[in-house]
Design a protein that fits this description.
The chain is α/β, with parallel strands linked by helices. It folds into two domains: about 120 residues, Rossmann fold; about 100 residues, Orthogonal Bundle (Arc Repressor Mutant, subunit A). The protein has eight helices and twelve strands. It has a five-stranded parallel β-sheet, with helices on both faces. A four-stranded antiparallel β-sheet has the order 6-7-8-9, with helices on one face. β11 and β12 form a beta hairpin. It is elongated.
């Protein structure tokens, strides 16, 4: 999963990053809140860890914008030295899923992260439908007009990333990290090849209700359209 850590204490941020990476997650650190919000215009994250006190804008403002852009499905945890009961209640009322007091106890941090990930997995939909395309997430299969399409594992994984981010530009680097995160011998041309295959196999030229477009200098975007 893609984690965003919004924390201006570099040592603290690097420790949290190392812990999350040890579990196989992809992690990006932001020392300022606005830098994280700017990144949301181009990239997607599956989980946010936010410090309340940041050098530019408050963590509460970051949280507000994250909810506006990413919705309420994405987990958000606050790490903060403000541990009095009133502050903790404020954090949760503002829309955080949990908070962890500083100094961070690292075993507790990972346990809380894992608990939220389990909860998120349990509440995620098992079917995605757009136009004539239906993705069965439990069975790892995709059907077009009711007919199952023969896809490789990577093609399926890439298709699901697109389907979960309809309308959003996804940079090639992000697609590589989400689908080929443990492979070091692939580059952006691999994304282009697989995207081209998906266009043909799933009919992503608009005929089935979805259009996969290459965004010059950025990446790919999947949009809903009226099926022909």
């Amino acid at each position: 999963m893609n984690f965003a850590i919004v924390e201006d204490n570099r040592v603290q941020a690097e420790v949290l990053k190392a812990l999350l990476k040890s579990e196989g997650h992809v992690v990006e650190i932001f020392a300022e809140g606005q830098a994280c919000l700017d990144a949301l215009k181009e990239r997607t994250f599956d989980f946010f860890v936010i410090d309340w006190s940041l050098p530019d804008i408050g963590g509460d403002e970051v949280l507000k914008q994250v909810r506006a852009v990413c919705g309420w499905e994405v987990p958000v945890v606050f790490c903060t030295a403000r541990t009095e009961e009133e502050s903790a209640a404020d954090i949760l009322r503002l829309g955080a899923d949990d908070y962890i007091p500083k100094p961070v106890r690292y075993m507790e941090f990972m346990a809380r992260i894992q608990a939220l990930l389990r909860r998120r997995q349990a509440t995620r939909p098992t079917l995605l439908r757009f136009g004539n395309i239906e993705a069965d997430l439990e069975g790892r299969r995709i059907r077009v007009s009711g007919v199952e399409v023969d896809l490789t594992q990577r093609e399926y994984d890439l298709a699901i990333v697109f389907l979960r981010n309809v309308g959003k530009v996804l940079p090639r680097e992000e697609l590589l990290s989400k689908v080929w995160d443990r492979d070091t011998d692939v580059d952006s041309r691999t994304v282009d090849t697989h995207a081209s295959r998906l266009r043909k196999k799933l009919g992503l030229g608009g005929e089935n209700g979805l259009m996969l477009s290459s965004v010059y200098g950025q990446g790919y975007r999947l949009d809903t359209v009226r099926a022909g």
